[in-house]
Amino acid sequence: MSDMRDKGDKGDEAASYARKVRRAAQMVLLQRHKRPGAKGWELKRTLGKQYMKVVELLNDELGKLGLEIKVLPEEGDVEPLTEEQRERASFFATLRDPAGTMEATAGLRVDDIAMLAAIVAYITSKHGRAQTKEVDQLLAGKFPRWRIEFGIQRFIRRGYLREDEEGILRLDWRSMVEIDQKSLLSLMLGVEGAKRE
Amino acid sequence: MPKRGKNPKRSEYLMQVIELCRMIERRGVDPFNVEIPDLLERMRQQFPDLKLPDELCLDAEALRDVASVIGLQGDWVKHLSSSLYVDSVLVGFKVRALSVRLLAHSLLKSWRPIVSMEQISKDELRSAVDYWNNLLPLHERFKVLRSQEVPTGSVDLDSLIRSRILSNKSFEELIGDLWRELLAKAGEDGAVSYWDLVRAESYEDTILRAYLTSFLISYGYSRVKVDPLKDEVLLLPNREPTPLSRDGGILSLPIPIGREFWRSQKR
User: Fold this and answer.
1) A121 φ/ψ sector (left φ>0, alpha ψ -120 to 50, else beta)
2) A123 domain-assigned
3) Is residue A81 classed as helix, strand or coil in its secondary structure?
4) Which of A172, A148, A147 is closest to A161 using CA atoms?
5) How near does any CA of chain B get to the CA of A27, in Å?
6) pLDDT tens, position by position, for chain A (197 residues)?
């Protein structure tokens, strides 16, 4: 009798977690605000105190589809995050492996992607900030000026870059989530060597 | 002993420090190019000579900007020691040397785009259907708009006074009346509680009287005395309007008048 009750309890718990995983998937995948994803406190409010366990389960499920959950801490917060910092952080679903091909480029042309690569690498090498003028000069030999201006504004709108009133460009939230800066730099610097090999 | 005045040299040096620190921050150049100990030493030496509030403010501002540069130095060291450190000149060179296709390829190999979907929810659909069902045909809507056009009318002065849009007395007359009332209430004691003057039958009138009282004080018709122990504000009317003297310093005295507080005072 008690075995049956135990099995029943475990079944209820599993069903409850399955329901929560589905709810978490909706929250993370369906865009409800200007930015995609969900905040830690939103997940906690909906899924309860054990929300990180639900997020881990969701991560396992998404892994089967080649996706994963990525956590972006608030600016200034560093890993390992405290409970409070985790609640402030944003949770996104991203591809588990790099896009690799032009098929998953979010509507960007090859020129745009090249421009973004150059800007992100340059800003990273400049300790996370570079003057817009410098970036213009860097790209001037490769792209027409109107295209550079248009590209930078587009990347700002999409959350890859942000520009302050003094004309300093910095990487914004989307670059932090989507782009592996270390890998980008090593690929860019090693790409000629790799080609020769 | 000669009076100390503003020394342009001291201010100029502090401005230079501020400009230098901000330039370092703005341009993202190596913050170790600044000799922080030298800057601080010179600021320390001239600090005892700073007397004017402007100079002291400038000194504080310069010190804050120097602290920001020290913060940048910390970030710089962290970055140098991290695996992300690459010379920006080298990156610039690579960007110029690589083809557009190779640059794009580098990003594609290190790019994991966010996956998200935009979807209309059941609630949004329901409210859209409700809106659609309640939406009048265009010709009906225009009819409604036309029917709203009403001929212009006229309002007489009495109605505007009754609606409190206009007053039948000038502002000066209102202040004069309140001053005379204050003088009468003060009598020989020479002091009236602020609330005894301001309190009126309606909340709106109380606000109006408080507003006028503030002008009574600003125009020198009355002085104010605050008794912090009794938490009381007293008005001491002047027999003649006396302009406020700026030598003794003028203080602002905010007095909140919430509706609840007004009720409690009324009781």
Assistant:
1) alpha
2) yes
3) coil
4) A172
5) 10
6) 556 566 666 777 788 889 999 999 999 998 878 889 999 999 999 999 999 999 999 999 999 999 999 999 998 777 788 999 999 999 999 999 987 776 666 678 889 999 999 999 999 998 888 989 999 999 998 899 889 999 999 999 999 999 988 888 999 999 999 999 999 998 988 854 444 43
CB-nearest to B26 from A100, A110, A168 is: A168
Q: Are A139 and A160 in the same domain? A: yes
CATH classification of the domain holding A69? 3.90.1150
Same domain, A115 and A55: no
Q: Do A122 and B103 touch (CB under 8 A)?
A: no
Q: Which amino acid is at B37?
A: P
Q: Closest chain B residue to A76 measured between Cα atoms?
A: B75
Q: Which domain holds residue A36?
A: 15-96
What is the pTM assigned to this prediction?
A: 0.58
A132 and A154 share one domain = yes
Name residue A162's beta-bridge partners: A170
